Structure formats: structure tokens, C-alpha cells
Amino acid sequence: MLRLVALRIAMAVPVMLVVATIVFLLLRLSPGDPALIIAGETAGPEALARIRADMGLDRPLFVQYLAWLAEIARGHLGTSVLSKIPVLSLIFDRLEPTLVLALSAILITVLVAVPLGAVAAWRHNSWVDRAVMMLSVLGFSVPAFVIGYILILLFSVKADIFPVQGYVSPFDDPVAALRHLALPSITLALVFMALISRVTRSSLLEVLGEDFVRTARAKGNVERRVLWRHALPNAAVPIITVIGLGIALLISGVVVTESVFNLPGVGRLTIDAILARDYPVVQGLMLFFALIYIGVNLLIDIAYVIVDPRIRY
After folding, report:
1. What is the pLDDT of residues 39-63, one digit of tens each?
2. Using an 8 Å Cβ cutoff, are 78 and 87 in contact?
3. Which residues pair with 86 in a beta bridge?
4. How much is the pLDDT for 101?
5. Same domain? 29 vs 136
6. In this structure, what CATH number is given to the domain that contains residue 233?
7. What does the alpha-carbon distance between residue 303 and residue 176 come to, in Å, rounded to a whole number?
8. Residues linked to residue 79 through DSSP beta bridges, in sequence order
9. 121, 157, 191, 235: which could form a disulfide with 207 (CB 3.0–4.6 Å)?
10. Residues 68 and 179 in one domain
11. Which residues contact 290 (CB under 8 A, 6 or more apart)?
12. Residue 31: which domain range?
């Protein structure tokens, strides 16, 4: 176990270096002048040159890259050009809404999608199976922002049950926090429910045809025990994989959902930084997202070993 974790962490270092290089080049080579955005359209050449010098944009590209890597090695992701606040402070200030939204969406997804997929596999070719698959196709087809606006129209504008937008910390008012998080959490969860329920169904259908399942039935076990005690644990590896991928994909979903519901999270910070061409903030956020991806993949590898001990060999 420890050797596996150490190996995965060692592999994460070159991955982070490649991600950092790609992010740096994409931002530097993309069209647009951040100095002109900061100074305004009426700024003169001297003002633009001074801003470029303050941002280090007047130096050669390779020198800028090495200086940026040196700052990262010291644990400093830079300072926002617009707000003059360290990037790490900006991320940590916006982290709570994003984490709470992502965790609530993951919880809803797992609690609903896995049982739905299991029931669809258990009742294969029945109306239950067809209904679950139809909902899965619908979840895949409709974009997250469309789902969000539909939920706002139905449950906020028409029914006036949930707030339209905004965020309340669960540490301040748990009830108000649940009301504000209900619609954005369901919006995110509906998209990933489709993926996880389909994978759960497919994995269980393969396992239900194995010999050990027939043996469990021959011993007189009830069908429910065969499904949840024998079949589902042996189909867990693909399900864990897709849940891990769903957690990573939540990052892109959070960016859209936070904009729809006006949540002050990391996703909204990303959009604001991109529109303002705030290089240090965008670079720091991309590295932060890459670190989340790598951490999720590490947790998936550890979960593999726990679920199926054969993998450690």
C-alpha cells in the first residue's frame, strides 16, 4: 500500500510540471494584452510599458517561465494583478462554496445513481430498466446550465421553494445553506447520475452471470442479498473508477453551475480571472485543479486495493 502511494506521488511530479508548462504557454500565446485590459483603451505607450514591466511581460518567455517555476517551488503562486492579493489567499477564500457544492453533489449522485443502476441490472429488460436508461440518456443530453435554469424556473420562480441564487455557509445557518445548495447540487448531480447509473448497470450485468452468483443463489440466498452482498462488491472497481472520474469532472461542472446560481466559489473566480486576463490567478487555479485531479486518481488507486486485494499483487 505505502509503495503504491509513494509511486503515485512520484509520478505526479512530472505530470504537474507538464501541466504547468502547458498552462503557462497557453496563457502567454493566447491573443490579448493584459496590460491594455488593466490600463484601459486610452492608455499611452509609456503606461502600457510600465505595466508590462511590473508584470514581467517585457522579459523573454523562457525567463518568465523559469521565474514562475521558482516562485511555485517556494510555495508562492503569485499575486493577482488586479486585486494585489496573493493567489493562494484568493483560492482559499473561495474554496468553501466549491467544496460544499461538490461534496453535496457527489453525495446525492452516489446515493441515487448506484441503487438505480443496481435495480436496473436486477430488473434487466423490465420497465424499470428502460426507465433508468431513458433518464440516463436525458441526463447525458441536456447541458448542466440548461438543467439549472429549468430548476430555477420550476422551483424558484414558479413554486418559490428555493432561493434563485446566493450562498450561505453551513457553519453559519445549516437550514439556509441547504435551501441555497439544493438546486445547484441537484443540477450537478443529475449530469453524473446518468454516467454512474449506466456503468453500475453494465458492471452488475456482467457479474450477475458469473458462477459464484449462481452458487450463492443455489445456497438459498434471497435475491436481494445476492445482489448487494455478492454481486455489487465484485462489480465495484468500474463503479469506483467512474465515480472518481465524476469527481474530477465536477470541476468543469462547478464553473458553469456557480455562474448560473451566482455562487462565490473557485469556479466563479476562474471565469472572472480569465475575462480580466489576470495571469497569476489563472495559472494558480489551473495548477490547483490539476492537483485535485491527481489527488482523486491517487484515492481511486487506494480504493482499488481496498476493494480488490488482488490488485496489490
Report:
1. 666 666 777 777 777 666 677 778 8
2. yes
3. 79
4. 87
5. no
6. 1.10.3720.10
7. 34
8. 86
9. 235
10. no
11. 15, 16, 19, 20
12. 16-73
